[in-house]
Amino acid sequence: MKKKKKKEEEEEEEKKKKKKKKKKKKKKKKKKKKKKKKKKKKKKKKKGFVKPLMRAPRAERFHDVTSHARDIVLTTASQSDRTDASPGAFQRLSRHRRAPRGCPAVCRASDGRAQRQLPLGGPGPRCPGC
Protein backbone atom coordinates (compact mmCIF):
# COMPACT_ATOMS: atom_id res chain seq x y z
CA MET A 1 0.00 0.00 0.00
CA LYS A 2 2.70 2.37 1.00
CA LYS A 3 4.66 1.63 -2.15
CA LYS A 4 1.62 2.27 -4.29
CA LYS A 5 0.97 5.55 -2.56
CA LYS A 6 4.58 6.57 -2.96
CA LYS A 7 4.48 5.74 -6.65
CA GLU A 8 1.31 7.72 -7.10
CA GLU A 9 2.79 10.67 -5.25
CA GLU A 10 5.91 10.52 -7.38
CA GLU A 11 3.84 10.41 -10.51
CA GLU A 12 1.84 13.41 -9.36
CA GLU A 13 5.03 15.31 -8.58
CA GLU A 14 6.41 14.49 -12.00
CA LYS A 15 3.20 15.68 -13.61
CA LYS A 16 3.42 18.91 -11.63
CA LYS A 17 7.02 19.41 -12.73
CA LYS A 18 6.06 18.84 -16.33
CA LYS A 19 3.25 21.33 -15.98
CA LYS A 20 5.66 23.85 -14.50
CA LYS A 21 8.10 23.32 -17.36
CA LYS A 22 5.47 24.20 -19.93
CA LYS A 23 5.82 27.92 -20.29
CA LYS A 24 3.14 30.02 -21.70
CA LYS A 25 4.02 31.37 -25.09
CA LYS A 26 4.19 35.12 -25.13
CA LYS A 27 1.81 36.73 -27.51
CA LYS A 28 3.53 39.00 -29.97
CA LYS A 29 2.25 42.51 -29.84
CA LYS A 30 0.97 43.75 -33.13
CA LYS A 31 2.55 46.96 -34.28
CA LYS A 32 0.09 49.72 -34.79
CA LYS A 33 0.15 51.23 -38.24
CA LYS A 34 0.61 54.95 -38.27
CA LYS A 35 -2.19 56.78 -39.95
CA LYS A 36 -1.09 59.04 -42.74
CA LYS A 37 -2.21 62.60 -42.31
CA LYS A 38 -4.27 63.88 -45.15
CA LYS A 39 -2.98 67.06 -46.68
CA LYS A 40 -5.45 69.86 -46.65
CA LYS A 41 -6.16 71.25 -50.05
CA LYS A 42 -5.66 74.96 -50.28
CA LYS A 43 -8.63 76.80 -51.60
CA LYS A 44 -7.81 78.87 -54.61
CA LYS A 45 -8.72 82.47 -54.22
CA LYS A 46 -10.85 83.64 -57.04
CA LYS A 47 -9.45 86.80 -58.49
CA GLY A 48 -11.22 89.27 -60.63
CA PHE A 49 -9.55 90.49 -63.77
CA VAL A 50 -5.80 90.44 -63.30
CA LYS A 51 -3.64 92.42 -65.63
CA PRO A 52 -1.38 89.99 -67.47
CA LEU A 53 1.71 91.82 -66.27
CA MET A 54 0.74 91.33 -62.65
CA ARG A 55 0.81 87.57 -63.15
CA ALA A 56 4.54 87.74 -63.71
CA PRO A 57 6.75 87.07 -60.69
CA ARG A 58 7.67 90.05 -58.57
CA ALA A 59 11.18 90.39 -59.92
CA GLU A 60 9.88 90.69 -63.45
CA ARG A 61 7.21 93.19 -62.51
CA PHE A 62 9.67 95.60 -60.92
CA HIS A 63 12.57 96.01 -63.25
CA ASP A 64 14.73 98.85 -64.37
CA VAL A 65 12.42 100.85 -66.57
CA THR A 66 15.19 102.99 -68.01
CA SER A 67 17.05 100.16 -69.68
CA HIS A 68 13.78 98.65 -70.85
CA ALA A 69 12.77 101.91 -72.55
CA ARG A 70 16.17 102.15 -74.17
CA ASP A 71 15.80 98.64 -75.56
CA ILE A 72 12.47 99.54 -77.10
CA VAL A 73 14.01 102.59 -78.70
CA LEU A 74 16.89 100.60 -80.13
CA THR A 75 14.54 98.10 -81.73
CA THR A 76 11.83 100.45 -82.98
CA ALA A 77 13.67 103.69 -83.77
CA SER A 78 15.08 104.39 -87.19
CA GLN A 79 18.59 103.26 -88.10
CA SER A 80 20.15 106.69 -87.56
CA ASP A 81 18.68 106.98 -84.07
CA ARG A 82 19.60 103.46 -83.15
CA THR A 83 23.32 104.21 -82.98
CA ASP A 84 22.92 106.46 -79.98
CA ALA A 85 19.61 106.41 -78.14
CA SER A 86 19.16 110.13 -78.51
CA PRO A 87 16.43 112.22 -76.88
CA GLY A 88 14.87 112.60 -80.32
CA ALA A 89 14.47 108.85 -80.60
CA PHE A 90 12.68 108.71 -77.29
CA GLN A 91 10.33 111.52 -78.24
CA ARG A 92 9.52 109.92 -81.56
CA LEU A 93 8.89 106.64 -79.83
CA SER A 94 6.69 108.19 -77.18
CA ARG A 95 4.58 109.82 -79.86
CA HIS A 96 3.57 106.58 -81.52
CA ARG A 97 3.62 104.31 -78.47
CA ARG A 98 1.83 106.43 -75.93
CA ALA A 99 -0.18 105.07 -73.05
CA PRO A 100 -3.82 106.03 -73.48
CA ARG A 101 -3.89 108.46 -70.57
CA GLY A 102 -0.48 109.93 -71.10
CA CYS A 103 2.49 109.42 -68.83
CA PRO A 104 2.82 110.59 -65.22
CA ALA A 105 5.46 113.20 -64.57
CA VAL A 106 7.09 111.07 -61.91
CA CYS A 107 8.46 108.55 -64.36
CA ARG A 108 9.45 110.96 -67.11
CA ALA A 109 12.67 112.83 -67.59
CA SER A 110 12.71 115.84 -69.88
CA ASP A 111 14.11 113.78 -72.75
CA GLY A 112 11.44 111.11 -72.45
CA ARG A 113 13.63 108.69 -70.57
CA ALA A 114 11.97 106.68 -67.82
CA GLN A 115 13.38 108.04 -64.59
CA ARG A 116 12.09 105.79 -61.83
CA GLN A 117 11.34 102.16 -61.23
CA LEU A 118 7.60 101.85 -61.50
CA PRO A 119 5.67 98.63 -61.12
CA LEU A 120 4.68 97.41 -64.54
CA GLY A 121 1.17 96.39 -63.70
CA GLY A 122 0.80 99.12 -61.10
CA PRO A 123 -1.81 101.80 -60.93
CA GLY A 124 -1.88 104.84 -63.17
CA PRO A 125 -0.93 105.45 -66.77
CA ARG A 126 2.33 104.15 -68.14
CA CYS A 127 4.73 105.65 -70.60
CA PRO A 128 6.15 103.58 -73.48
CA GLY A 129 9.22 102.88 -71.39
CA CYS A 130 7.27 101.56 -68.44
From TrEMBL:
Name of the molecule in the record: Uncharacterized protein
Record field: compositional bias (Basic and acidic residues): 57-71
Here the segments flagged for biased composition (Basic residues) are 16-49
Annotated source species:
Liparis tanakae (Tanaka's snailfish)
Superkingdom of origin: Eukaryota
User: Where in this protein does the record put region Disordered?
Assistant: 1-130
